[in-house]
User: What shape does this take?
Amino acid sequence: MSDLKPHSRQYFGVTSLLAAHPDMRKLKRSTSATHLHGNKLWGSAYVLMDYLQENPLAPGSRVLELGCGWGLASIYCAKYQQADVTALDADPAVFPYLELLAKHNQVNIQTLSKDFTALSTDELVEYDIIIASDICFWDEMSEAVYELIARAVAAGVKQILIADPHRPPFIDVAEACIDDFFAELLPREVTTNRRHRGSILLIENA
Ligand SMILES: C[S@@+](CC[C@H](N)C(=O)[O-])C[C@H]1O[C@@H](n2cnc3c(N)ncnc32)[C@H](O)[C@@H]1O
Assistant: This one.
C-alpha cells in the first residue's frame, strides 16, 4: 500500500485519496461501479466531522453510519472518537473504497450491506448513535428516512445526527422531526479545499 502525498488529502485528520492515487486507480479497475451516488466523497461528511469535533461522542459509543458510501465519517469516529463503528450501505460496491480508506487511516470499521429502510427496531437497539450524511436526495426517500428515525427513537438510540446540504427531501424530514421528536436543525459551514454548506439534523433521545 503506497501513500504518495501528492495524491492524498487530509481534513479533520482523516486521509482521503485522490482518483490519481495508485491504490485508487487499481481499485477502480478491479471493482464494479457504484449505484445510488456512492461514487465519491460528499461534502456533508465534513460538516458532520466538524460538528463532532466540537461535540464529541462518549468514548466507546456504538455508532451506526447509514448510507456510508466511502465512509469518511465512520473513519473519523473510529480514529478520533474511540467509537465502535458499523458502516452500512445498500450498495456493496462502496465497501472496497471504505476498506481502502480505513487501511490508510489505520482503523477498523465493520461493514453491513443492507438497505436502511429494512433495519428493524430490534437491530437498531444495538447502537447508541446513528450518523449519516447526504442520504436523503430523492423525494421518495423522505418517508423512508423519517420512518427509520422513528424506529431508531423507539429503539432507544440516544442520538441521531444527519448532515445534509439542504436538499428539499431532507428539509421535509427535518421539519417533521422538529414537530415530532423535538429535533434541531443546526446550520454549519466548513471549508476544506472547497466550501461545504449544510445543516445537521440533531435528535437527542434522552
Ligand atoms: C450521496 S451518497 C453519500 C455517501 C456518504 N454518506 C458521504 O457523505 O460521502 C449516498 C449513499 O447512501 C447510500 N444509500 C442510498 N439509499 C440507501 C438505502 N436505502 N439504504 C442504505 N444505503 C443507501 C448510497 O449507496 C450511497 O453510498
Notes: Residues 36-38, 41-42, 44-45, 67-70, 89-91, 94, 115-117, 133-135, 137 surround S-adenosylmethionine (CB under 6 Å). Residues 141-155 form the longest helix (15 residues). Strands lie at 8-11, 14-17, 62-66, 84-89, 110-113, 129-133, 159-164, 184-191, 195-204. The two ends are 43 Å apart (CA to CA).
